[in-house]
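Schema walk-through. Below, the input block comes first and the output block second. Nothing else is stored per chain. Lengths vary across the set, and this one has 90 residues.
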Amino acid sequence: MYYNLKTEERETLYMLQFEELRLGLLAQEDELKNLYEAMDIETKKSRLEELEAQTAVSGFWNDQENSQKVVQEMSHTEPSASRKSTSITT
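--- output ---
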């Protein structure tokens, strides 16, 4: 695509493309923050930590009914709570 250009010209074009992408992401920053808040990820992370702490308690696994409930809740909470979302600051 840019094969016929000099190295300096190619670098300039790449920098311009990068800047366009960066500005596009910045324009969507508010929407991403709103989505982050709507998904309530911080609360889900806290809940997941609580559930994980429960599994570490001595005798937790002896109560099969309760342990199944906790593990099931963890499996439903974990996908959205464990996503790499910490880069979005509110």
